[in-house]
Amino acid sequence: MAEARLYVNLKAVRQEAGLTQGELAERARVSRKTVNTIENGVFTPSVTVALTLARALDVPLDALFRLVD
């Protein structure tokens, strides 16, 4: 079986909400660099950060992150 990988949809959802990385970072109380590195697949967020981002965007967690085969 192939190893599952994380599909990150954060950028599309953020843009759909009309927010910049900085604005989302401020709402979620994380740094803009954190948002940027997650969007670019450099950093995998902790569950706490992922849930905080979802809450800041008012979307379910799986709208931002999914495991795919």
Could you characterize the architecture of this molecule?
The chain is mainly α. The protein is 55% helix and 12% strand. The chain has five helices and two strands; from the N terminus they run βαααααβ. Strands 1-2 form a two-stranded antiparallel ribbon.
Q: What structural keywords apply?
A:
globular; 5 helices; two-stranded antiparallel ribbon; single chain; 55% helix; mainly alpha; 69 residues; 2 strands
Mean pLDDT: 94
Report the sheet with the most strands, covering strand number, pairing sense and barrel closure: 2 strands, antiparallel
The stretches of 5 or more residues where confidence is low (pLDDT under 50) are: none
Per the principal axes of the C-alpha atoms, what is the gross shape? globular
Quaternary status of these chains?
A: single chain
